[in-house]
Amino acid sequence: MNNKDHSELITQKTGLKANTFFSASKLKWVIENEPHIKEGLIKGNILFGTIDTYLLYRLTKCKEYVTDTTNASRTLLFNCIDNRWDNELFSIFEIEQFKLADVKSSSSNFGLSNFENSFLKEIPITGVAGDAQASFFANLCFSPGDSKITTGTGFNIQTNIGTSFKIDPNAFTTLAFSHNKKNYYSFECLGSVAGATISWLKNNLKLIDKVSESESLSQEIEDSGGVALIPAFTGLGPPFWKANARAAFIGISASTTKKQIVRAALESVAFQMVVYLEFLQRDNKFELKNLIVDGGMIKNKLFLQMIADLLKIEIMVPEIEEMSLYGALLFGIQQQKNISELKDLNKFAVKRKAIKYQENQGLQRSFHHWKKLIDIYFISNQEKN
């Protein structure tokens, strides 16, 4: 097999792309450069796992070597269709097979712990999930089309595609959760910069003193005056996939103001999310349903309104900012209360508020201008080179 064949096989089995973001390439490097670790892994003296595996192992006083399907699915070594560690994937990364953590669904009995003597007696650990998938579950995205955006330093978008494993070239296919021995999958977009863009305005450019000013200053003007930020600080992610691209302000003139630069930066955060969702809907011929936005940027009401206005839909915002924490709790509740139907979890839903769509032709024009600039300066030019 050549590298292209390897990449295709990885995607077909994991839904992900061969990328150093995930665990397998890191493990390969460690094994190649630290012979004693390789020997320890084979003998069982050293264990490999994601952070949840480590925490479970330590919290249970080294009794439980276990993980859940969502965390296992992020290693590039786990077959997300058959729910098993995959020897062929190990072979691709030239990693010898060794004992790996037992894999359970996110709602399971993972062991007992008194949490470093925080409790008088041991209590069961019954909910474990990866950050993105926990938020997805907490927002009750149980039906095809249900979608959520989690905002923070970066952003994560997931859209439920049901129980059939599908591949989209502009997204990851994620094992969102397992229920009643069935896997539920989502299309997923990982973005490196969201809140980081606003922090950059504050910490690097010193244009604002606190992140909340990105909203207040932007509200004082109707638009960015033609200024656009392409936030490719670490490359342009999906749906463009231009790893070598770098960020740029375009359209600055002698009359450009600080407010216009700040607004252009805030708009760029919303634009990169919306353009991905546009591609996803077009390529898969479906409409978004029940779009929920959570995470740190929900404090910025103007940002939320931009998302609603650009997509021309009502979006929902939960009262709890960090829904990933609630998702782990909800998985635990499901196990503890032996809940067999997903719809029965609706009674644990977090209260939400609606952001209604408003007609905003100026914002739409800015968005179309932003996309055009990417086509001209970041897509066409690179294709010519």
Can you walk me through this structure?
This protein has 385 residues and is an alpha+beta fold. It has two domains: 3-124, ATPase, nucleotide binding domain (Nucleotidyltransferase, domain 5, 2-Layer Sandwich); 131-385, Nucleotidyltransferase, domain 5. It has helices at 3-14, 23-33, 35-43, 51-59, 69-72, 87-92, 131-138, 195-203, 213-219, 258-284, 301-311, 323-336, 361-384; strands at 66-68, 78-79, 84-85, 102-104, 112-113, 123-124, 146-151, 155-162, 172-179, 182-191, 228-230, 248-250, 289-295, 315-318, 352-355. The strands form six sheets. A five-stranded mixed β-sheet has the order 9-10-8-7-13. A two-stranded parallel sheet has the order 1-4. It has a two-stranded antiparallel ribbon with strand order 2-3. Strand 9 and strand 10 (182-191) form a beta hairpin. Helix 2 (23-33) packs across helix 3 (35-43) and helix 9 packs across helix 10 (258-284). The chain is globular, with a radius of gyration of 22 Å. The chain starts with a helix and ends with a helix. 42% of the residues are buried. The model has no long low-confidence stretch (mean pLDDT 94).
